[in-house]
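User: Please predict structures.

Assistant: First:
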Amino acid sequence: MKKIMKHVAVLLVGLTACNPLQLDEIVDPNNPSVASVTSNATRSQVQFLVTGLESRHRGYVTNVSQAWNTFGREIWYLNSSDPRFQTDWLGQGGRVPDAAYFGFGTTGGGSYASPYQAIKQAQVLIDAVDNTSSISAEEKNAIKGFAKTIMGYQFMIPANFVYQNGIRIDVKDPLNPGPYVTYQEALTYAEGLLNEGFADLANAGTGSSAFPFALTAGWNGYSTLDGLRSVNRAIAARLNAYQNDFQGVLNALAGSFMNLTGNLNAGPSHPYGAPPDVFNPLFYVPNAATTTIVVVHPSVLADATPGDKRVADKFLERTSPVTVSTDFSVLVGTHQDRRWAANTSFIPFIKNEELILLKAEAHARLNQPTDAVAAIDIIRTAAQVGPYAGATSEAALINEILYQRRYSLWAEPWGHRWIDARRYNKLSEIPTSYDQGTIFTQFPRPQADISWDLYSGN
């Protein structure tokens, strides 16, 4: 995929070009320019753009997985060669995020710049299909529906990163980007994209007809129009929960791939492979002698329910703990991630287990405790911890659901616990006693974005 991406990538450049939203057209006589694919593109050029969008779609994974899951104390990213991964990311010694916060650079890295790269790639794809005669109207709808689905997903990443500091949603013209909007406005915009994408997919054909262009194996089981619509609605359900629209969550889930009796891990994924592709960035050799590794946060181990199958499935106890010292504490990682069988394992970006937990949350918030408990028990039964026997007040059910999300969605490339704790005003409940750190609420907009405003006089 990466080799193909070379031919079609649109790059978000950093401060060196003054504008973090500027497109970098590829200067290579052997490869197409942006202009050449947005004016009567061939079918093969459209295919390149589709595959390139898939590649861009996974650009956030490494940074978000390592950083956001550190903020929520699902993991520690231990790195003895650069203590800032511990001191700065954990907020030790009064460290607080600034516009050039360590690990995100001036452009925000995978938490900001990479999502915008995917968004720009999707926009180039949409422009290409709108301005070509080489594909049919239904095929155009299918591709635009796919592109808008990815855009809706990607806009949620910078929105959750800077939170109340706001993001730009109008970035079509990189030399004249729109103003910053609030978190809620960003979510509303992302919802609109998802709804538009769903409508486009609905007008792209009937039944389970195949997507008119090739998707990678990460979309196996979902590379039909029906499958894409079900993924679109799954993403919409996650977004609706962030908007506190819980009837909207249930409505979206009704059209998603949620299956109450199905494989909890079912869902689309980010593919990885050997060069010229890239390896799974979250895979670490079991028990390797290293001091650069993601380890399970001690509180996750301490708070686990005895006999929880997820603990055995996800956490490998190392024969030798990893120990890293900072100026403020000694961090000891006794367990590492064991979810990935190899460095070519695919990484799901939304799965059936999350959808069932969203269903439970929606029912709890809508005062439907019987339905909430039924959904909770699907998760608890799979984890082999027995049915739920606690109180059924809304507060009690939400606490139980957040606990189950903590283990079912542990360290996924989204930072679920950090976001969940923030949306339920529970950031103070995330423990810092193990690292003497701080729990961050949000991050400032990256320096390159701020500098562009200063440069352009906005």
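Second:
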Amino acid sequence: MILRNPLFLLLIPVLGLILLYLEARRRKEHTRLRGAVRYSSVGVLKEAPVSPRVRWARRLPWLRLIYLVLLVLALARPQVGLKETILRQEGIDIVLALDVSTSMLAEDFIIRGSRKNRLEVVQEVTAEFIAKRPRDRIGLVIFAGRPYILSPLTWDHNFSTVRLREVKAGMIEDGTAIGSALATAVNRLRESTAESKVVILLTDGVNNAGAIPPLAAAEAAAALGVTVYTIGAGSDKPVPYPVTDPWGRKVYQNVEIGLDEELLQEIAAITGGKYHHANDTASLVQIFREIDQMTTSPLEMPVFREYRELYPYLLLAAFFLIALETVLNNTVYRRLP
């Protein structure tokens, strides 16, 4: 909560002092009048018990103080924040193209002491990358034997992250269509007017599917001003791969999964990007951090905050107390001349 006009709060102690002064004067006058009265009997001077009506009448000045304070608070204009909206400007548009072929089930990565498959680690690290870039539009393309648009370019990163966590290896026919995936990602950026356009392509395999050659897709990206950062995921040595034995049990076989690093390096070079190799979780995290630094927008996005005004509620409460005091003074606590 904020106060638009906080200086009005200085009136509160002033009001308190004024009311205390007036109450002191009233008491002094009351004492003076009592001293001026002459009684024929000393017994009359004994204090009569104070009735509840009189006790409450003495508290009316506090009611007056409360509604005056409420009026001062209303002048200070308290506001409570409802939501924060980033006023978007042309910054960076990023499309992440992620390999979800069955080779991503290889379990050569470790997270928090537990062995995980490549896709699980990529999902977690990518989600962290997305969360750190609230000012950029981000889209998602997944691919195996063909590409699939998982999320369009959007500032709704919650939507993108939810869709990303739903991805399973094998949900698309198997294969590794690097060229088609890159072309699809670049096509998402074709209409972009952003200051910078970036594709981050991650795969652990060799291009063996799709109708578009990877280098032709890279040339198209360069022509459109799209920078491509490529990531080769996984070890170049035999890695544990889960399979099901004849008894339905999950067992592991050491298999070697080919990775065309030369192709990924060439794609990055054509577009002015950079190739990275991630052979474990730590290196993958570091790669995304480096890309995050390399693709930082120099623009500062202004922030617009929406607020709800609270002064109408304070005025309503103050007017209610004013009306209550008026009614009480003219009915229950009315003083006869």
